[in-house]
Design brief:
single chain; 215 residues; mainly beta; 6-stranded antiparallel β-barrel
Length: 215
């Protein structure tokens, strides 16, 4: 998983043929030509302002590759790709060496653990140096209806786009998109990996998402 800058969302490498990325659709609404994926993100400053990794860990997003929907809970997803690094010539996958495996569909709800890793914001009493830096939490799987999955796994702003990982299989079952936990039995929400439009996009890649010898 990496940080999308300057938007402040989370994106993650997947096991498509070109080894590119998924995130939340609302993270792509205002995409600009300077947006990048960042890996090996350092701690932030004492006031919470970001520090960026070196240029060797930044990958420009290809606007032509972006496919997305931003239509609320259960219909919020994006499939996109990045150009190779301008310093090393490597793709993000070549440099990171791993990608998430996509499940075919979420499992039935059974209370299994769901893990979310992303670049969420922080507030007191959490040290502000962790603002926008990679953090992980695990909690129970609570809901699956239509294209919406729910889980009591802690997230904050900046976790949007994070992979929703099934701890039983290790596979990604969805994309985290919306908050919902309020301490009264609610749950946070994501788009199921089986969403038909997302699956269509994955089967019809654009730009650098089209398979090549780069992977």
């Amino acid at each position: 998983s990496g940080r999308i800058a300057p938007i402040g969302c989370t994106g993650w490498l997947i096991d498509d043929p070109a080894r590119q990325f998924l995130t939340a659709g609302h993270c792509m609404d205002n995409l600009s030509v300077v947006d990048t994926m960042e890996f090996n993100v350092p701690l932030s400053n004492g006031d919470g302002s970001w520090n960026h990794p070196g240029p060797e860990d930044q990958y420009p997003i290809d606007p032509v590759s972006v496919q997305f929907a931003d239509d609320g809970i259960g219909n919020d997803w994006s499939y996109y790709g990045c150009f190779p690094n301008t310093e090393t010539g490597l793709t993000a996958y070549q440099a990171q060496g791993e990608s998430h495996i996509l499940a075919s569909a979420p499992p039935a709800v059974d209370g299994r653990d769901i893990t979310i890793t992303g670049y969420g914001s922080t507030s007191s009493p959490v040290d502000p140096t962790w603002y926008g830096v990679q953090k992980t939490h695990t909690g129970p799987y609570m809901h699956f209806t239509g294209n919406n999955i729910g889980y009591q796994t802690d997230t904050t702003g900046g976790n949007s786009g994070s992979p929703v990982l099934d701890e039983v299989t290790g596979m990604a079952i969805g994309i985290h998109t919306h908050a919902g936990c309020d301490g009264s039995g609610g749950y946070n929400n994501g788009t199921a990996i089986s969403h038909s439009d997302l699956q269509y996009a994955l089967a019809h890649p654009l730009g650098v998402c089209i398979p090549s010898t780069l992977v």
